[in-house]
Design goal:
Chain lengths: 667, 251, 226
């Protein structure tokens, strides 16, 4: 069993990155022209990496399955991006951002990586502003900040509720400049089908042109995966329909270890599932919890009356409401971290208090905020504070100013006016902290194969803080990978172009073609979605917000059975040599069916509760998560050996030299 | 609800294509339009027919991947939404719904309702950027204050999702709203000034080369734009363009 | 830089359309003022007509520019229409243009074509006889057989026929529709600044209705003056 070398540089935490950069190998500009790099995925991580590598002089080939790199799912991030700029003078610093991120991750991330992330965060903002990203500004023309969950400072930069979009368009514009110069060759509507490993090094990929169905070979001296997370293993999630694990999974099968697959973030404020045929869940920004109070009825008969449509939530008296977060966590109330809020909602709904037809929804109520703001506004303007109509009107105006676009979005989807009746929300899968294991250089266990952004596991531990995903994607792509990859490529300047007519490419292409042909020739009875939905249900029920030994064991068995059924009974219309979305989906779901099993296996192995991973066996007397630092302060890195069930576990022990491990408490 | 769908089917770019009728029943008003198409496709697949190809991804109105010309309007009858945010409650039981691809010479059809919007990308390659390298040593973000009003206008222009509804809905298939949104974003910000003149000339040149039509200011694009990009941006681009011409930048 | 280069770009062509339109709108106003004098004072009308018809600056500088503007505006209009049609080779099976734009804005080519047909009639009615009298017959006096100015008399004569009056009225209604979109469109094409938009568009509506209405009134008054 190989040991994992995280390659963390020696020296004091604050100097590691600088010293490391000063000492690594560089490739001279003339030689960079001789080196090809493949970047798969064009979100914040992949897009920024492709642009920067091309600026440096490497020949970049970039791939995305969407029709344009601008459509990667980073675009949907709403809230903002953290950076330790301390523009507000509220005591923020690199160390504080580092500390908050490690603590927020429930002490399951690597100190050196997180510190580096905090260190380069300020550069990201400078870079994006220079690119013309229109961040929100105050009336003095300077950048504005807001505060986000789990921290005590205002360090989040934002562009209304569309920060991810603006940052991605920034990276996209940087890519466009390089595409225009011919330094990036862009392959839209191309899906990576496999990694090609030659002499132990990642030397290329097999890709499928999604328009023509053609199978293509692309070689390079290094391959970078910025292919995002695998939340869609749950079928219903806030991820885009196309988001998938396939690139990471193919890498895993070619030798890259998969780290902490069970660490999933379930976001508490999403619009609940409305019907059996729903395909996608929509997130409502975390910021709503600043003013909304979360509750369910205290009495079961009220719940039934609501479900039957005989009672409206507004008719339930104050004393008959259970503001369960305020009751359980008086100190943080409705502003507890995401994992805690999600579990509390599930606990109430499991007890039968869910307020919609499916029994999986709780109320997010703005009535008290409306009244409070309304009275305040009436007071300020010298109007009658006891005139309820006036107070309601003024209060609603203020709420509309703060959250208008979110309220409108809710109304479009649910067809209820959230100014008049409480919103219904329920947790949904949102982000995956787990991913390909990478060392300090962001290289996986396959030499020359890198993973950046959500696709790797490195910075968020067991729970990610709000506004940190954008930070990590751009830090990896703009500021980390372009340096660290040079250290590896420096030894490749004499290699010359990698040929694609080698046995390794032949074999990889053959495997890909055989699998595609199998799908289109398999005369089953059910569509891909039929299996994907069933997989999602197993995952949600047994590997969702709360997990236990029995559930996980049965999930493993059920997923295995479902996988066998999938291979027997799948029906894919059309052929492999044409535009065929069902065929593309089939490949992705086949991989989810394998990942799902590893996910459950990992969750079973980690018999502690930490961050987004809650094991029912590991909780305090009050039902709070109990972390087990003595036994589980490590990263689980799984090595593929032929079947997900037979994956080998490698442990990377986490060493905390600069932070003391503490229990998170929000009481 | 029971509906009669009339959908454009076209096997590939070379096929002639035609409208085909598909009845669909038991549609819930709470479904999104694309979920309704998902249901249709599942039925088609299980019957052994080829499903209707359409573009979609984020399903929350921000990626710009989804398109569709529904009952004669880009993204359907609702305002300020993309097709993925359109819900079936906007239709009545028994309705006939025409579903067509976004049509323009510059958006060739790939299959059924899927079109190639690569022209949009190529326009961006021509100048939709600020030429600044990633170095980590750019000046501090707060060293250039930008008036809030300008920053807000730049943001509004920058919210374009590049879906192509403006082109699809324009009687001339003009891409002016799309191009002007990017030109405006940078024209309003100090970072974009240095290259402003070359940018507008290069982007307009590429736009014309792609075969889009000429703007006749009908304003349809602004109405159908899911992000409400304003026609003012086109006026601003016209201004920027004339400034560049007067400056003798034309090549 | 060159004009031909400018006209190669879509924005350049827009700009040129707008400039020619602006010139034509100013001409229209001037034409209206002179014609209005016909209903208030035939003598003034005669004097103005004689001046316009014989002044070398008007005849040999302004008139060719006007003709060029007219020809340019409609030729470019047709060229653009062809190009725009070409930009969508396959039409929609169902298109609901009324949902997002005005009828006027979508039918400029239709209103423009009617106006063009009217212009042909107008040239046959007035311009060709004028040219014939002045430059072919060589009579620059502007006088009729009785020794008075001939202009008002000829004008009255033309508006005797009710069919011609009706044709004029219809053309002017379409001119109004053309202007209702064209006026603000021209300023948009030339990159109007936000702060003037409201005032300008209000003025545009007034202009677009008042000017054609003026011509219609003149035609009707002259017809009824018989």
């Amino acid at each position: 069993m190989a040991t994992l070398d995280s390659k963390i540089p020696a020296g004091p935490l604050a100097d590691k990155w600088t010293n490391y950069k000063n000492n690594i190998n560089l490739v001279n500009p003339a030689n960079k022209r001789l080196i090809d790099v493949i970047v798969v995925g064009t979100g914040l991580a992949g897009g920024s990496a492709a642009a920067t590598l091309a600026e440096l002089g490497y020949n970049v080939k970039a791939f995305c399955f969407q029709d344009s790199p601008r459509r990667a799912h980073s675009i949907a991030a709403q809230g903002g991006i953290n950076a330790a700029k301390n523009y507000q003078g509220d005591g923020d610093s690199t160390f504080r951002l580092f500390y908050d991120t490690v603590k927020g991750g429930d002490y399951r991330s690597r100190e050196a990586n997180v510190y580096r992330l905090a260190e380069v965060s300020a550069n990201i903002i400078d870079q994006c502003v220079a690119q013309g990203v229109p961040f929100a500004r105050d009336y003095g023309g300077l950048l504005d900040n807001r505060s986000f969950g789990g921290v005590l400072v205002s360090r989040t930069f934002y562009a209304k509720g569309q920060t991810g979009q603006q940052l991605l368009l920034g990276a996209y514009s940087a890519m466009n400049r390089q595409i225009g110069r011919g330094k990036i060759k862009m392959y839209n509507r191309h899906e990576m089908m496999d990694i090609v490993v030659v002499d132990g090094k990642a030397r290329g990929i097999i890709a499928r042109n999604l328009v023509t169905g053609e199978i293509e070979r692309h070689s390079a001296h290094a391959v970078v995966l910025g292919t995002g997370g695998y939340g869609n293993v749950f079928f219903l999630s806030t991820n885009a329909m196309g988001s998938n694990v396939s690139a990471a999974w193919k890498a895993h099968k070619r030798g890259a270890y998969f780290a902490n697959p069970c660490f999933t973030q379930i976001h508490p404020t999403c619009i609940p599932v409305s019907g059996e045929l729903q395909a996608k869940l929509t997130l409502m920004s975390e910021s709503l919890r600043n003013d909304g109070r979360i509750w369910v009825p205290k009495k079961l008969e009220d719940v039934e009356a609501i479900r039957a449509g005989k009672l409206k939530p507004t008719q339930i008296k104050e004393e008959d409401r259970d503001y369960y977060l305020e009751r359980r966590y008086p100190a943080f109330g409705n502003l507890v971290p995401r994992d805690v809020a999600s579990r509390a909602a599930k606990e109430r709904c499991d007890a039968g208090y869910g307020v919609n037809a499916t029994g999986e929804a709780v109320y997010l109520d703005f009535a008290s905020a409306v009244t409070r703001y309304g009275k305040e506004a009436a007071h300020v303007r010298g109007l009658n504070e006891n005139d309820n109509t006036l107070v309601q009107k003024l209060g609603k105006e203020i709420i509309a100013n703060k959250y208008g676009n979110l309220f409108q979005m809710y109304e479009k989807i649910v067809d209820e006016n959230p100014y008049e009746t409480p919103m219904m929300i329920y947790p949904a899968v949102h982000y995956t902290m787990g991913g390909l294991w990478v060392d300090y250089n962001l290289m996986t266990t396959v030499p020359g194969l890198y993973a950046i952004g959500e696709a790797n596991f490195s910075d968020h531990g067991a729970n990610r803080l709000g506004a940190s995903a954008l930070m990590q994607g751009l830090a990896d792509g703009y500021f980390v990978l372009p340096y660290t990859i040079g250290d590896y490529l420096a030894s490749d300047i004499r290699t010359g172009a990698i040929p694609t007519n080698t046995p390794e490419f032949d074999a990889a292409e053959k495997e890909v073609t055989e699998r595609l042909n199998f799908f289109v020739n398999n005369n089953g009875t059910h569509s891909v979605d039929y299996f994907h939905r069933r997989l999602g249900k197993i995952m949600w029920d047994k590997c969702g917000m709360a997990r236990n030994t029995d559930g996980l064991k049965s999930a493993i068995a059920e997923i295995k059975a479902l996988r066998e059924e999938f291979w027997k009974d799948l029906k894919v219309p059309g052929s492999a040599d044409e535009y065929n979305e069902e065929l593309a989906k089939a490949g992705r779901v086949a991989d989810f069916l394998e990942l799902g099993e590893l996910f459950a296996k990992d969750a079973l192995e980690r018999n502690e509760s930490c961050g987004g991973h809650f094991r029912e066996e590991s909780q305090t007397a009050e039902g709070e998560a109990a972390r087990d630092d003595a036994n589980y302060t490590y990263v689980s890195a799984w090595e593929y050996t032929g079947l997900p069930s037979e994956a080998n576990l490698h442990k990377e022990e986490l060493v905390y030299e600069n932070i003391e491990l503490k229990t998170r408490s929000y009481k | 609800m029971n509906l009669k769908l009339k959908i454009w089917r076209q096997k590939n770019a070379n096929d002639k294509g035609k409208m085909v009728d598909y009845p669909i029943s038991d549609v819930s008003p709470d479904m999104s339009f694309l979920e309704m198409l998902d249901v249709l496709n599942n039925q088609l697949i299980e019957k052994g027919e080829s499903p209707v190809a359409f573009d979609h991804d984020c399903r929350e109105g921000i990626c710009g991947m989804c398109s569709l010309y529904i009952n004669g309007e880009a993204h359907g009858p609702d305002r300020g939404v993309t097709t993925c945010q359109l819900h079936m409650r906007k239709f009545k039981d028994g309705d006939t719904i025409y579903i067509e691809p976004f049509r323009a010479k510059a958006f060739p059809i790939i299959k059924d309702l899927v079109v190639d919007r690569g022209a949009f990308d190529r326009i961006q390659h021509a100048g939709g950027f600020v030429s600044v390298n990633t170095s980590g040593n750019t000046q501090d973000a707060n060293s250039i204050p930008i008036p809030k009003a300008d920053a807000d206008l730049a943001f509004d222009a920058a919210t374009c999702i590049g879906c192509g509804a403006c082109v699809a809905t324009c009687k001339n298939s003009s891409a002016m709203l799309y191009v002007s949104a990017k030109v405006s974003q940078f024209a309003l910000l100090p970072q974009g000034q240095v290259e402003a003149k070359d940018r507008v000339l290069n982007m307009v040149k590429q736009m014309d080369a792609e075969g889009f039509g000429n703007c006749t200011n009908t304003g349809a694009c602004e109405v159908e734009c899911p992000k409400g990009i304003s026609l003012d941006n086109i006026a601003r681009m016209n201004r920027e363009f004339s400034k560049a011409i007067l400056d003798g930048r034309e090549k | 830089m060159s004009n031909t280069g400018l006209l190669k770009s879509s924005i350049g062509r827009k700009f040129a359309m707008a400039l020619s339109a602006l010139f034509l709108m100013i001409f229209l106003l001037q034409h209206l003022v002179i014609n209005l004098s016909a209903i208030f004072s035939p003598d003034t009308f005669n004097e103005l007509s004689h001046f316009m018809g014989t002044n070398p600056l008007v005849q040999f500088v302004a008139q060719p520019i006007l003709i060029f503007a007219v020809v340019f505006h409609f030729v470019m209009g047709f060229v653009l229409e062809m190009k725009n049609r070409d930009a969508r080779p396959v039409k929609y099976a169902k298109n609901n243009g009324a949902a997002n734009s005005t009828w006027m804005s979508r039918n400029m080519i239709l209103s423009g074509s009617v106006i063009l047909a009217f212009l042909a009639l107008h040239f046959i009615d007035f311009w060709i006889p004028e040219i014939n009298t002045k430059y072919i017959a060589g009579d620059m006096s502007g006088l009729n057989a009785e020794g008075g100015f001939r202009y008002y008399e000829e004008l009255l004569h033309k508006f005797h026929d009710p069919i011609r009056v009706a044709a004029y009225c219809i053309a002017f209604i379409l001119l109004a529709l053309h202007l209702l979109h064209g006026f603000s469109s021209a300023f948009q094409s030339m990159g109007q600044k936000n702060k003037y938009i409201t005032a300008l568009s209000k003025f545009g509506v007034v202009y677009s209705i008042a000017v054609p209405l003026g011509f219609v009134i003149i035609a009707l008054v002259l017809h009824l003056a018989h």
